[in-house]
Known about the structure:
Blueprint: H1 3-8, H2 12-50, H3 71-104
Amino acid sequence: MSYNEYWYGNPEKLKYYREMDKINRKRKNFELWLQGRYIYEAVICASPATNPLSKAKKCYPYPDSPFPMSKKEAEEMAEAKRIEQYHEMLDRMKAEYDMQEIKKGGERNGRNN
């Protein structure tokens, strides 16, 4: 809010500017909290490599996707992961079937060549 708006403008606007400031502070607070969550996750993932008393010297894998912001987004991410696993399973099954065909040799339609 500018100086002139504050002193010479509509006093009702002040209420809306305060509300806007409150919303902006909440948003900024959430952004900083989320940043802290990512930093915490990164420190946890790197902690085995920096701890001299730890038996595990490899770092834990960092999450490959952002944290979900809502329940709906979490469900969508879980569904996408399930579909990806399904396609990987189909690829493995196809590769296994192809290997069996190579071992058998020939065609399966009655001819031997």
